[in-house]
Automatic annotation (TrEMBL):
This is Hit. GO terms for molecular function: catalytic activity. It comes from Candidatus Jorgensenbacteria bacterium GW2011_GWA1_48_11. Residues 5-111 form the HIT domain. It comes from the Bacteria.
Protein backbone atom coordinates (compact mmCIF):
# COMPACT_ATOMS: atom_id res chain seq x y z
CA UNK A 1 0.00 0.00 0.00
CA UNK A 2 1.49 3.30 -1.12
CA UNK A 3 0.39 5.59 1.74
CA UNK A 4 0.85 3.14 4.62
CA UNK A 5 3.23 4.46 7.27
CA UNK A 6 4.68 1.03 8.09
CA UNK A 7 5.11 0.15 4.41
CA UNK A 8 7.07 3.40 3.98
CA UNK A 9 9.27 2.51 6.96
CA UNK A 10 9.87 -0.97 5.50
CA UNK A 11 10.84 0.62 2.16
CA UNK A 12 13.18 3.06 3.98
CA UNK A 13 11.17 6.07 2.80
CA UNK A 14 10.66 7.15 6.42
CA UNK A 15 13.40 6.78 9.05
CA UNK A 16 12.90 4.55 12.08
CA UNK A 17 15.08 3.15 14.85
CA UNK A 18 15.31 -0.34 13.34
CA UNK A 19 16.56 -3.08 15.67
CA UNK A 20 16.09 -6.07 13.34
CA UNK A 21 15.26 -6.71 9.71
CA UNK A 22 15.11 -9.63 7.34
CA UNK A 23 13.29 -10.34 4.08
CA UNK A 24 9.83 -10.57 5.69
CA UNK A 25 9.90 -8.68 9.01
CA UNK A 26 11.15 -5.35 10.32
CA UNK A 27 11.35 -4.41 14.01
CA UNK A 28 11.68 -0.84 15.20
CA UNK A 29 11.20 1.28 18.32
CA UNK A 30 7.74 2.71 18.94
CA UNK A 31 7.85 6.53 18.84
CA UNK A 32 5.35 6.70 21.72
CA UNK A 33 6.64 3.96 24.03
CA UNK A 34 4.38 2.53 26.73
CA UNK A 35 7.22 0.56 28.35
CA UNK A 36 10.99 0.87 28.83
CA UNK A 37 11.31 -1.46 25.82
CA UNK A 38 8.52 -0.96 23.27
CA UNK A 39 9.18 -2.37 19.83
CA UNK A 40 6.90 -2.92 16.86
CA UNK A 41 7.26 -6.17 14.95
CA UNK A 42 5.90 -5.56 11.45
CA UNK A 43 5.61 -7.81 8.40
CA UNK A 44 6.88 -6.16 5.24
CA UNK A 45 3.86 -7.46 3.35
CA UNK A 46 0.93 -5.10 3.79
CA UNK A 47 -1.78 -6.86 5.76
CA UNK A 48 -4.30 -4.52 7.33
CA UNK A 49 -4.90 -6.39 10.60
CA UNK A 50 -5.44 -9.77 12.25
CA UNK A 51 -9.00 -9.51 10.91
CA UNK A 52 -7.62 -9.54 7.35
CA UNK A 53 -5.41 -12.63 7.67
CA UNK A 54 -5.82 -15.44 5.16
CA UNK A 55 -4.69 -19.05 5.36
CA UNK A 56 -1.47 -18.33 3.48
CA UNK A 57 -0.46 -15.80 6.18
CA UNK A 58 0.21 -18.49 8.80
CA UNK A 59 3.95 -18.43 8.13
CA UNK A 60 4.14 -14.64 8.42
CA UNK A 61 2.31 -14.65 11.76
CA UNK A 62 4.67 -17.35 13.03
CA UNK A 63 7.66 -15.33 11.83
CA UNK A 64 6.39 -12.22 13.65
CA UNK A 65 6.00 -14.08 16.94
CA UNK A 66 9.39 -15.81 16.71
CA UNK A 67 11.09 -12.53 15.74
CA UNK A 68 9.53 -10.92 18.84
CA UNK A 69 10.79 -13.80 21.01
CA UNK A 70 14.33 -13.42 19.63
CA UNK A 71 14.25 -9.64 20.05
CA UNK A 72 13.08 -10.04 23.67
CA UNK A 73 16.04 -12.35 24.33
CA UNK A 74 18.41 -9.88 22.64
CA UNK A 75 17.09 -7.18 25.01
CA UNK A 76 17.50 -9.50 28.04
CA UNK A 77 13.81 -9.24 28.90
CA UNK A 78 12.90 -11.65 31.70
CA UNK A 79 9.22 -11.07 31.05
CA UNK A 80 7.33 -9.17 28.39
CA UNK A 81 3.99 -8.63 26.75
CA UNK A 82 3.05 -9.29 23.13
CA UNK A 83 0.00 -7.34 21.98
CA UNK A 84 -1.93 -7.31 18.70
CA UNK A 85 -4.52 -4.52 18.54
CA UNK A 86 -7.24 -5.28 15.99
CA UNK A 87 -9.34 -2.52 14.45
CA UNK A 88 -10.03 0.95 15.82
CA UNK A 89 -12.30 -0.43 18.55
CA UNK A 90 -9.37 -2.64 19.62
CA UNK A 91 -6.90 0.25 19.74
CA UNK A 92 -5.24 -0.25 16.34
CA UNK A 93 -4.07 3.14 15.05
CA UNK A 94 -2.09 2.10 11.94
CA UNK A 95 -3.85 -0.09 9.37
CA UNK A 96 -0.93 -2.48 8.99
CA UNK A 97 -0.59 -5.66 11.04
CA UNK A 98 1.93 -5.21 13.83
CA UNK A 99 2.84 -6.81 17.13
CA UNK A 100 3.82 -4.72 20.15
CA UNK A 101 6.71 -6.12 22.19
CA UNK A 102 6.67 -4.45 25.61
CA UNK A 103 8.99 -5.11 28.52
CA UNK A 104 11.84 -3.88 30.63
CA UNK A 105 9.82 -3.09 33.74
CA UNK A 106 11.08 -3.84 37.20
CA UNK A 107 9.54 -6.94 38.73
CA UNK A 108 5.90 -6.47 39.68
CA UNK A 109 5.31 -3.28 37.69
CA UNK A 110 3.96 -4.99 34.55
CA UNK A 111 1.10 -6.60 36.45
CA UNK A 112 -0.33 -3.17 37.29
CA UNK A 113 -0.25 -1.94 33.68
CA UNK A 114 -3.22 -2.16 31.37
CA UNK A 115 -1.61 -2.25 27.93
Amino acid sequence: MVDCLFCKIARKEIPAAVTYEDETVIIFKDIQPKAPVHLLVVPKEHIESIGHLKGDHREIVSKIIFAAKEEAAKNNLKGYKLVFNVGRAGGQLIDHLHLHLLGGWTEGVAQSLNV
